[in-house]
From TrEMBL:
Pfam families: ABC_membrane, ABC_tran. The keyword Iron-sulfur does not apply. Residues 406-629, 987-1204 form the ABC transporter domain. Signal peptide: none annotated. It is found in: Membrane. The chain crosses the membrane at residues 92-113, 133-156, 205-230, 236-253, 311-341, 347-368, 677-697, 732-756, 923-942, 948-970. Gene3D superfamilies: ABC transporter type 1, transmembrane domain (1.20.1560.10), P-loop containing nucleotide triphosphate hydrolases (3.40.50.300). This is Multidrug resistance-associated protein lethal(2)03659. It is a multi-pass membrane protein.
Length: 1328
């Protein structure tokens, strides 16, 4: 598959990190050129760097696949964790080492140095000098700088590690998918695999950011508690009680969230599976007017999914709210205990306590629960990966021979070991070198399964299969991928122009390529959606024929082409071009059987009879009758020029790329999200809750400072109530007891508001997510077909999986973080400036610098994030297309080609994603360095301007918190805008152009009862840029009139089925009873369905893959019969069935749709010769339109088509047309003969084979209103009644019930006037 890769499309520059030095990597200087380009213009794929060698997908998956295979060989229970560890253990160890250095050395040193610095301000302190204070302050600043640089180095390292794991596991899953057996494919779906590669992979990626907390947090907690006990005494451990109570609760909540994560994944699988099928079958859904019903179906699944997501998200929100107040509550308990034991709070005790408890809170209460949650959820993902990787693979059960040919002896096989019935039984089948062998038989007999046996797709349980030589295969259901015609034919094979042009010629594609706007460089669309069925079949055949092989397995390649093209392909492709090759042809076209070397008749999974054409003809079997019918067909050569015509070289058509907006996300997107979550008033209420929570949080921090300063004044000046009035107010109203009560009140309100705020906000986000998904799905399913032609299923599914997943789970946390951090930063700056007004100057300067850094970063980051989203879609599209054509891919041995293609897509995505990671880290590092400078400035100001230890400690601790918080807030803010592109992409699909409802007018009930179809000067094209496909079409089809969509049934050329039961496919929304469904299954399906394990309720695999193509077409026919609409459209509906079944189906259609308007597209001309009218189209124009016999008399285009079938067949078709013309066509009003012995009477017209009547007088009138509609008052033979006035077709009032005509006749004037052979025939069925 030659998908377009960015690497092939553009000449990309090498990655700047390849030549960067240590300092450049440490400070992310290699990103500066990227920021310069991004600031000047919107970044595009041309600006992507080449993928770094360490990120190369093929290299990573090669190592992981080897490690996984070792697990399979060495262990009964293979572990993907162990395989990942083996490949990435050194990266993991480096990550752990850096984490240890940061958490256990750098971060611990700062509170210790702060404690020493605070000791300098104690009135009783004499050991700490001014110089010592400066040294301790310097340690705080230097430690903050090292924390910044090393911390971000660790982050980029683990992010690269998680990215490499994601790439390796994704490619490993894809490679496994290419090897799945048919049985395994029945146990999984494309939607499930897509969910594995999106949501489950995301859970695994989160693990590498938090797993260090699992081993480090307990150790760090013990170390911190020991230091606290040593510095501050036993009262410093009082807050530990609160932490020990809440931490297990947090862990329990995290475990519960992980439990729900598994259930969410299963529901998401189900939703994506249905979405995949809906996109594939959208044309049928639209024709049957099922859009609203499927909206309800997806809505029901989505509600169940969201119920689980709400629970998991509420649990996470509760855990998040704990993190907001747990450290402050613990500090409160310590201080209260300290005061109640007879002490006064001082700066050294309070700020050392606050710093260490903030670390403890982050380590134990925040990181540890997150780590537990992520590990549990990633473990769920790993188990799902392992379940998939342990599915059954295709195993080579064939014997490889050096002799060219196929040999099967006494082979028995079935698709599933659990199946009671064999698919194939006692098969003996031989094809020798140079032979052309035909396989024929009724639908569902096992013809395609026999080819699957040859391809090793179906394993034998008895007997053996021997193959010799290379095999090429053309599937019965043409498989095309979203590339050009040329790419689909070559399929990775080298271009040989002479051979290529010859293949185009013998596969009858020259004329088609001449009509395509870009020749063979025309894009075919996903699954060949822009081509006709015949064009897809011939391109599919050309791919098989172009490949150098010894054996060609062709599964019914002639069913979708007309007679002349079929004869051309058989003569020039199968017989001439493949002469000397082994050719196995599955076909229902019996006219070619006399030209093959051997014929095998397959019935009920066994070979009923085999031999040459003459041997079978003389066999005396029932089958010989079929062969005798074949004599009606001619085998004259098709006149074709001998010279190979050069194909005109056209510029390659560019595929319509996924739309990507530029610039920053518009305010309207944010407004749409807010409106989806409720109203602006609710949003403002949420903001108020956040503000109040922040006020209480900062209020608790400030109150401690106030209390510490108050106690320092009391201690330093030894103030009492009796000797001074300077601090009278504070001393009277802020006693220790009152301070404890005030402090407790603030903490209590903080706990309440933090919890209510988190839960309320999450609820609003969930409402928004539900509404956005519902609106997007409704808009998508009601979009015009142009939308589905130009957007691959992978692209659409990416919106419903990845983007909706982001809105469901990532966006609520992100939005809450942004609001919380924004208010925290504003609050921190505010209280710092309030405590120490001198800090206002550096605060303003730093804010301006940070704003400009953010502005430069955001313009670049935004475009990179959008590129990352759009370059993720091809991965899903490639997977979807590969799974649809798995048999063809394996038959062509193209697995390596497709693996390489996926690796290319992965490399493009990795390159863009690493640019995104690098830009984020650079931004964070530079902001943190600015914050370190800010900490330095405010520390100098505090040391020189402040005398209260509380103020100094407060300014420094708040400043240190800004070091991480400010850049994290800015990054989260920027990330919010980046992640809001998911909302933007969803809104884009919500606003997609829908089908216009105003074009459907309200019609009278009578219009629905008949089926008249009229085209008046109709011209149509698929898009504004495309040429017209219909040009000034004027056609009247009458009666019965209808064009309301719900009143139309369609049997499509490619049968569309959905996973679920047989009953659900016939009646998706339970509108009919079982009895009626069994009645419509009489079309050669009833016996087959009865034999299934659960009958009507037996499940179909995805796309109905466990049914033959013919059986799937029969199910589509049964679906149409069940609806019994007035208009029936047959698009090659019987192309894939055998002649006997075709005859039965034609009879069924004529009987069950006798009072319907039937429009048929067919290449089998004998199926349409009894039609009332034939419309001949050429280049979008109506060339001829009349009864078949009349058109044949005109000797125009239709006559030429009939005669191209051959002289004998043409004569036979002309006779059929003449006979039907004489009988008035299919809409004959058969009249009973009224003998002379009968008096004038009324006789109901029912079923009768006589098309005329001898009568002295005849009057036809409606039983409803008695109006006479036809009258003859003299003896005459009325045959055929086709000559009656047109009003004959418009009798009576409209009714859904079958109408009857009544005949009233006078006595014959002469009994000799009527032939004796005509007798009374009873009731006549009136076919309208």
């Amino acid at each position: 598959m030659e998908g377009k890769s960015v690497f092939n499309k553009y000449k990309l520059q090498s990655h700047p990190q390849e030549n960067s030095n240590f300092l450049s990597e440490l400070f992310f200087c290699w990103t500066i050129p990227m920021f310069k380009t991004g600031f000047k213009k919107e970044l595009t794929e041309e600006d992507i760097y080449k993928t770094l060698k360490r990120h190369d997908a093929s290299r990573l998956v090669g190592k992981l696949e080897k490690a996984w295979n070792e697990q399979l060989d060495q262990s009964v229970k293979p572990s993907l964790w162990k395989a990942i560890w083996k490949i990435f253990k050194w990266d993991t160890i480096i990550s752990m080492s850096l984490y240890f250095f940061i958490e256990f050395i750098i971060k611990i040193s700062r509170p210790v140095a702060l404690g020493k610095l605070m000791g300098y301000y104690l009135p009783t302190e004499t050991e700490v000098s001014k110089d010592d204070a400066i040294i301790y302050a310097s340690i705080i600043v230097i430690a903050s700088f090292i924390d910044t640089v090393v911390g971000h180095a660790w982050m980029i390292h683990f992010q690269q590690l998680s990215m490499k794991v994601r790439v390796a596991v994704s490619s490993l899953l894809y490679r496994k998918a290419l090897r799945l057996s048919k049985k395994a494919l029945n146990e999984t779906t494309v939607g499930h695999i897509i969910n594995l590669l999106s949501n489950d992979i995301h859970q695994l990626v989160l693990f590498y950011g938090t797993f260090n907390a699992l081993w480090a947090s307990p150790l760090q907690a013990v170390l911190i508690l020991c230091i606290l006990y040593y510095i501050s005494g036993p009262t410093a451990l009082a807050g530990l009680v609160f932490i020990l109570i809440l931490t297990p609760l947090q862990l329990l909540l995290s475990k519960k969230a992980a439990f729900y994560r598994l259930r969410i994944a299963l529901k998401t699988d189900e939703r994506i599976r249905y979405m995949s099928e809906i996109i594939s079958g959208i044309q049928v859904i639209k024709v049957y007017n099922w859009e609203q019903s499927f909206v309800k179906l997806i809505d029901a699944i989505r509600r169940k999914e969201m119920y689980l997501i709400k629970i998991a998200t509420y649990l996470n929100a509760l855990t998040t709210s704990f993190a907001f107040f747990i450290d402050r509550t613990a500090i409160f308990l310590c201080i209260v205990t300290y005061v109640l034991t007879g002490n006064s709070p001082n700066a050294q005790y309070v700020f050392v306590l606050a710093s260490f408890y903030e670390m403890l809170m982050g380590s134990v209460s925040l990181y540890l629960p997150d780590a537990v949650s992520d590990i549990l959820q990633s473990n769920v993902a790993i188990k799902r990966f392992e379940n998939f990787l342990n599915l059954e693979e295709v195993r080579c059960n064939t014997i490889i021979s050096k002799e060219i040919g196929l040999r099967i002896e006494k082979a028995t096989a079935k698709w599933s070991k659990e199946s009671k019935q064999n698919t194939l039984s006692n098969i003996n089948f031989t094809v020798e070198d140079g032979q052309v062998v035909a396989i024929i038989g009724p639908i569902g007999s096992g013809k395609s399964s026999l080819l699957q046996l040859c391809l090793n797709e179906l394993s034998v349980s008895e007997g053996f299969v021997q193959t010799g030589g290379r095999i090429s295969y053309a599937n019965q259901e043409p498989w095309l991928f979203a590339g050009t015609v040329k790419q689909n034919i070559l399929f990775g094979a080298p271009m040989d122009k002479l051979k290529y042009h010859k293949v185009i010629k013998v596969c009858a594609l020259e004329e088609d390529l001449g009509q395509f706007p870009h020749g063979d460089n025309t894009v075919v669309g996903e699954r060949g959606i822009l081509l006709s069925g015949g064009q897809k079949a011939r391109i599919n055949l050309a791919r098989a024929v172009y490949r150098d092989a010894d054996i060609y397995l062709l599964d019914d390649p002639l069913s979708a082409v007309d007679a002349s093209v079929g004869k051309h392909i058989f003569k020039h492709c199968i017989k001439d071009y493949l002469k000397g090759k082994c050719v196995v042809l599955v076909t229902h076209q019996i006219q070619y059987l006399s030209s093959v070397d051997n014929i095998y008749l397959v019935v009920n999974g066994s070979i009923a009879v085999s031999g040459s054409y003459k041997e079978l003809q003389a066999s005396g079997e029932d089958f010989s009758k079929v062969l005798n019918n074949e004599e009606n067909f001619d085998h004259e050569d098709v006149v074709v020029a001998n010279e190979t015509t050069d194909i005109k070289e056209e510029p390659e058509q560019n595929e319509e790329e996924e739309k990507r907006t530029s610039g920053k996300v518009s305010k309207e997107v944010y407004m749409r999200f807010i409106r989806a979550g409720g109203s602006y008033c609710i949003f403002l209420l949420m903001i108020l809750l956040f503000v109040l929570t922040e006020i209480f949080a900062k209020g608790s921090d400030y109150f401690i400072t106030f209390w510490v300063n108050l106690e320092q004044r009391r201690l330093g000046q030894n103030i009492s109530l009796n000797n001074s009035s300077e601090f009278y107010f504070e001393d009277i109203y802020f006693t220790k007891t009152i301070c404890i009560y005030l402090y407790a009140g603030i903490i209590g309100l903080l706990i309440i508001f933090a919890t209510v705020r988190s839960m309320s906000f999450i609820r609003g986000c969930m409402v928004a997510s539900v509404n956005l998904h519902d609106k997007m799905f409704t808009s998508t399913v009601k979009a015009t077909m142009r939308f589905f032609y130009t957007n691959s299923s992978g692209r659409i599914l990416n919106r419903f999986s990845n983007d909706i997943g982001t809105i469901d789970e990532a966006l609520p946390d992100l939005q809450m973080d942004v609001l919380q951090l924004t208010l925290s930063v504003i609050g921190t700056f505010g209280v710092i400036c309030m405590i120490s007004p001198w800090t206002l100057i550096p605060t303003l300067a730093i804010s301006i610098i940070m704003y400009f850094i953010r502005m430069v970063f955001l313009t670049t980051s935004r475009s990179i994030k959008r590129m990352e989203s759009t370059n993720r879609s091809p991965i899903f599209a490639h997977l979807t297309e590969s799974m649809k054509g798995l048999t063809t891919i394996r038959a062509c041995n193209a697995e390596l080609l497709l693996e390489k293609e996926l690796d290319n897509y992965q490399n493009v995505h990795s390159s863009v994603f690493y640019m995104f990671l690098g830009s984020n880290r650079a931004f964070a590092t530079w902001l943190d360095i600015v914050c370190v400078i800010y900490v330095l400035l405010i520390t100098v100001i505090a040391l020189t301007k402040e005398t209260y230890a509380g103020n100094v400690g407060f300014v420094i601790t708040q400043g240190m918190s800004l070091t991480g918080m400010f850049q994290w807030g800015m990054r989260r803010w920027s990330e919010l805008e980046n992640q809001m592109t998911s909302v933007e992409r969803v809104v884009e699909y919500i606003d997609v152009k829908r089908e216009s409802d105003n074009q459907t007018t309200k019609l009278k009930l009578e219009w629905l009862q008949h089926g008249k179809i009229e085209f008046r000067s109709v011209s149509m094209k698929y898009s504004s840029d495309d040429p017209y496909v219909l040009k000034n079409l004027n056609v009247l089809i009458k009666p019965n009139e209808n064009s309301v969509r719900s009143g139309i049934s369609i049997i499509p050329q490619e049968p569309i089925l959905f996973s679920g039961s047989v009953r659900k496919n016939l009646d998706p929304f339970d509108e009919y009873g079982d009895e009626k469904i069994w009645n419509v299954l009489e079309v050669k399906l009833k016996d087959f369905i009865v034999d299934l394990p659960a009958g009507l309720y037996s499940n179909l695999s995805e796309g109905g893959s466990n049914f033959s193509v013919g059986q799937k077409q029969l199910i589509c026919l049964a679906r149409a019969l069940l609806r019994n609409n007035k208009i029936l459209m047959l698009d090659e509906a019987t192309a894939n069935v055998d002649p006997h079944t075709d005859e039965l189906l034609q009879r069924t259609i004529r009987t069950n749709f006798a009072n319907c308007t039937v429009l048929t597209i067919a290449h089998r001309l004998h199926t349409i010769m009894d039609s009332d009218k034939v419309l001949v189209m050429d280049n979008g124009r109506a060339v001829e339109f009349d009864h078949p016999y009349i058109l044949l008399q005109k000797r125009g285009s239709f006559h030429d088509l009939v005669m191209e079938t051959g002289g004998k067949m043409g004569e036979s078709l002309i006779q059929v047309a003449q006979k039907e013309h004489n009988h008035g066509g299919r809409n004959i009003y058969n009249i009973i003969y009224i003998p002379s012995s009968m008096s004038t009477t009324k006789v109901p017209l029912g079923r009768c084979s006589i098309s005329g009547v001898w009568a002295t007088g005849l009057e036809l009138f409606s039983p409803h209103d008695g109006d006479s509609i036809y009258r003859k008052t003299y003896p005459t033979r009325i045959s055929p009644l086709r000559t009656c006035p047109a009003e004959l077709g418009h009798y009576g009032r409209p009714t859904r019930k079958r109408s009857r005509l009544w005949a009233e006749a006078e006595k014959f004037t002469s009994s000799a006037a009527a032939p004796e052979s005509i007798q009374t025939c009873g009731l006549v069925q009136v076919a309208r």
